[in-house]
Structures are given as structure tokens and as C-alpha cells.
Write a sequence for this structure.
């Protein structure tokens, strides 16, 4: 790994790691605690719960995911100056390249596909939420698969980052 400004690199790495921990923990919590608990609610509670909780969860993920990727890119720049050859040769560069692309992919999916799904909540009047109208029922069907797929890809990303930093 090429040398860089050591103190700045340490700070940026700490920001990257903290943001990644928050993001990964949040996706774990959504996938295995929040969504299963949500599924067990009676229909009359599901709509109000979605309108209140889902946008907050989405915005928290936007902040932690964007910070993870931004700090990851800054770290890669500090450590390599973005020299392509570093990323295309050797296990460190290849792990960061693959892990980084996977993390970037999840962020892009979050900002496009997930954002479009969540946008449908805006068309539902809070007064009608307890009736659990059609747009909310459609969203409920997708709400289980999307976070679990994200969790699987993020697990792969984390393992690649850990491998890059420490080897096996
Ligand atoms: C564009 C996306 C990303 C880039 C460019 C990037 C880049 C980096 C770089 C350069 C390192 C330092 C490796 C070293 O100093 O040896 C690192 C470490 C790390 N990255 Fe990323 N990263 C990205 C996305 C992510 C994502 C999405 C996660 C997890 C959700 C993540 C989690 C970590 C962790 C936990 C470490 C520290 C590993 C350890 O010290 O054990 N990164 N990353």
C-alpha cells in the first residue's frame, strides 16, 4: 500500500469505518428485526407504521451509505492517488476495486430503485393509511427482498475490505 499523509489518512479511514459500521448495522437491523416485526403487525397498523418509520430509515441509510462511499473514495485517493495500475494488480487493489464497485452499486440502487419505491409513500394520505391501500401492499411485498439482497452484497463488500486491510 503506498504511503500517504498519515494523520489525514487515519482520520478518513476512521470516518469510512464508522460510517460503514453504521450502514451495515442498519441494513442488518432492517433485514432481520424491523421487517419481520413489521410483517407480524395487523393490517390496520402496517400503513401508519410504514408512513412514519420507512422514510426515517431510508434517510438514515442515505447518509451512512453516502458517507461510507465518499470516505472510501477519499481513502483510496489518499492511499493510491487513483493510479489504475494499483487497482488492477495484486490482491489489495483488486479487493478494494471489487468491494468498492459492490458498495457503489448498492448506493446507486438505494438512490434509484429504493428511492422510487419509497416515493410512492408520498401519494398515500395519512388519513387513509390504516386502510392499507394498494400502493402500500405492493411495497410490503418488496420490502423483504430488497434489504436482504443489500445485506448479502454488503457482507461480501465488508469481507473484501477486511481482506484488503489484513489479508487472510
Ligand atoms: C467506493 C467504495 C469504497 C472504496 C473506494 C473503499 C476503499 C477502502 C480503502 C482504500 C480501505 C483501506 C484499506 C487499507 O488501508 O488497507 C477501506 C477499508 C475498509 N472499508 Fe472500504 N471502500 C469502499 C466501500 C466500502 C463499503 C461499502 C464498506 C462496508 C459497508 C466498506 C468497509 C470498509 C472497512 C470496514 C474497512 C476497514 C477494514 C479493516 O481495517 O479491517 N468500504 N476501504
Amino acid at each position: 500500500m503506498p504511503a500517504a499523509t498519515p494523520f489525514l489518512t487515519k482520520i478518513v479511514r476512521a470516518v469510512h469505518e464508522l460510517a460503514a459500521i453504521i450502514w451495515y448495522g442498519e441494513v442488518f437491523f432492517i433485514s432481520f428485526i424491523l421487517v419481520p416485526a413489521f410483517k407480524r403487525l395487523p393490517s390496520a397498523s402496517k400503513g401508519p407504521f410504514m408512513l412514519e418509520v420507512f422514510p426515517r430509515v431510508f434517510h438514515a441509510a442515505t447518509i451512512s451509505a453516502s458517507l461510507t462511499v465518499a470516505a472510501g473514495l477519499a481513502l483510496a485517493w489518499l492511499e493510491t492517488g487513483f493510479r489504475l495500475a494499483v487497482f488492477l494488480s495484486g490482491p489489495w487493489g483488486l479487493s478494494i476495486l471489487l468491494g468498492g464497485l459492490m458498495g457503489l452499486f448498492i448506493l446507486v440502487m438505494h438512490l434509484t430503485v429504493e428511492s422510487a419505491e419509497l416515493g410512492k409513500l408520498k401519494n398515500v394520505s395519512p388519513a387513509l393509511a390504516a386502510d392499507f391501500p394498494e400502493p402500500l401492499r405492493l411495497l410490503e411485498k418488496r420490502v423483504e427482498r430488497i434489504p436482504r439482497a443489500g445485506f448479502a452484497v454488503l457482507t461480501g463488500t465488508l469481507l473484501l475490505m477486511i481482506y484488503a486491510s489484513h489479508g487472510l
Observations:
- Residues 6-166 form one domain.
- The first helix runs from residue 6 to 39.
- The chain has one domain: 6-166.
